[in-house]
Structure to design on (88 residues):
């Protein structure tokens, strides 16, 4: 599963860190990709570049402990970014 290889212009299945495998012009390196975007074509090796998922890393707004904080901030303007600890 973790060894699945992706090609340029395919859709990114999971947000996370991907290893980029170029064709003969550069060593492997890692990038972050967001789910729903597409893998890019390399300016050097074109469609011969490959991407391999190293580990998933969901965006923070998808995390349950931060999703509400974002929606609150969007709804109530820019008030009190520091002191928003409402104790019940
Ligand atoms: Zn390349």
């Amino acid at each position: 599963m973790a060894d699945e290889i992706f090609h340029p212009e395919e859709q990114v299945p999971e947000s996370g860190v991907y290893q980029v495998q170029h064709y003969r012009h550069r060593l492997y390196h890692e990038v972050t990709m967001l789910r729903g975007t597409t893998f890019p074509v390399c300016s050097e090796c074109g469609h011969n570049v490959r991407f391999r998922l190293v580990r998933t890393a969901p965006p923070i707004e998808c995390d349950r402990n931060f999703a509400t904080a974002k929606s609150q901030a969007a709804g109530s303007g820019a008030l009190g970014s520091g002191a928003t600890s409402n104790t019940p």
